[in-house]
Amino acid sequence: MEVFFIKHVFKNPNIAPEVPVNAQYHKCEDCGKRTLMADFEASLNECECGKSTKLSARVRISAMVDEGAFEEMDSNFRSLDILEFEQYKSKLAAAQKNSAELDAVLTGVATIGGIPTGIFSMEPSFMLGSMGVVVGEKIARLFEHCTKKKLPVVGFCASGGARMQEGIFSLMQMAKTSGAIKLHSDKGLLYISILTDPTTGGVTASFAMLGDIILAEPKSTVAFAGPRVIAQTTRQKLPAGFQMSEFLLKKGFVDSIVKRVEMRVMLAQLLKLHTKS
Questions:
Q1: For residue range 106-139, what is the model confidence (pLDDT) as tens digits?
Q2: What pLDDT, in 10s, does the model give residues 176-232?
Q3: What DSSP character marks residue 153?
Q4: How far is the C-alpha of 180 from the C-alpha of 160, rounded, in Å?
Q5: SS3 content of the chain, % helix, strand, coil (to 5)
Q6: Each residue of 21-36: b (16+ CB within 10 Å) or e?
Q7: Sign (positive/negative) of CA torsion 150, 132, 126, 247?
Q8: According to the model, what pLDDT value does residue 146 have?
């Protein structure tokens, strides 16, 4: 994200400036439009063209649920260096400091449009939102809780995939979360999955794509393997933008693309339509 300052000079001192002196701006890397930082943050870090920058899990949940309604679950869970992977402890400590979170997902219950709902949001600044044991455990426990309480679940996915520092234990979370979602579905309960930039790897191959309704943010990368790996494997020329949310919408993998500023209203409408009174 490019941020810069512009000093405004006004020849007539009797006319108040519409923009503060030394105002901070955001410049979109796609369309090049410059937006006041305050306005950019008010739009949840999303440009008018649809291009967005990363949003923290807490800010996202706060923007989606009814004011003061979020109750966090399993807030004390943190990852362990199970395999004694080189430098993993120091990377965990750095990620916790940078993100102000203990791990890469935030889970809990809240109300959206007055409807009680389970919700999770992945934290992209924590090791790229990678899925380790804690991420899988917290999401599975959320679905188990919501199955017991007969609640729908809304999930915001943002991940680089499975966390390699936890090896097979990380990959096991794909099966664990998928199983918990299946039990939730068997009770006739709703799961809305929202794909944000990026949603990749083992997360895409498990809970991200198992929603009854799958929404996506504009211009989001959604993939399992990277384009270079796919091109080398298939030995074919890949279509432009084939891993973008707009391409996936055309192919039926996504039900709708929704801007961030419109997401809360969309979720409230969907929950009202699909949740029994």
A1: 999 999 999 999 999 999 999 999 999 999 999 9
A2: 999 999 999 999 999 999 999 999 999 999 999 999 999 999 999 999 988 888 988
A3: E
A4: 22
A5: 40, 20, 40
A6: eeeebbebeeeeeebe
A7: negative
A8: 98
Q: How far is Cα of residue 165 from the mean position of the Cα atoms in its chain?
A: 22
Joined together, the tokens standing for residue 184 give: 């939730």
> Which structure tokens are listed for 182?
């299946």
Neighbours of 39 (CB within 10 A): 10
Q: What residue ranges define each of the domains in the chain, with the CATH number in brackets?
A: 1-42 (no CATH), 54-274 (3.90.226.10)
Residues in the chain: 277
Asked if 181 contacts 207 with a C-beta cutoff of 8 angstroms, the reply is yes
- Looking at the predicted structure, is the pLDDT value of residue 6 above 80? no
> If you compute the radius of gyration of the chain from its CA atoms, what whole number of angstroms results?
20
Nearest CA to 155 among 202, 110, 207?
207
Q: Is the pLDDT of residue 8 over 70?
A: no
